[in-house]
Amino acid sequence: MGLSCNHALKTFIKCTIIKMSLDSCIRKMRLGILVAKTAQSLKTSGFQ
Predict the structure, then answer these.
(1) CA distance 43 to 35
(2) pTM of the model
(3) What is the pLDDT of residues 5-46, one digit of tens each?
């Protein structure tokens, strides 16, 4: 009983860590896309 409870807690912590790292990954990707779009629009307006 104690073992399964411990296992559930470990799984929960693992899932939480994965979710947090996924969230930060998504945030970084969004930021990267925003930066890329900004750079792209700066380039096109600079070349015209």
Answers:
(1) 12
(2) 0.58
(3) 889 999 999 999 999 999 999 999 999 999 999 999 988 887
CA pair distance 46, 31, nearest whole angstrom: 22
Single-letter residue type at 47 = F
User: What is the spatial distance between Cα 40 and Cα 47, in angstroms, rounded to a whole number?
Assistant: 11
d(C-alpha 31, C-alpha 40), whole Å: 14
End-to-end CA distance of the chain: 70
Q: How far apart are CA 44 and CA 25, in angstroms?
A: 28
Length of the chain: 48
* Cα–Cα distance, 27 to 29 (Å, whole number): 5
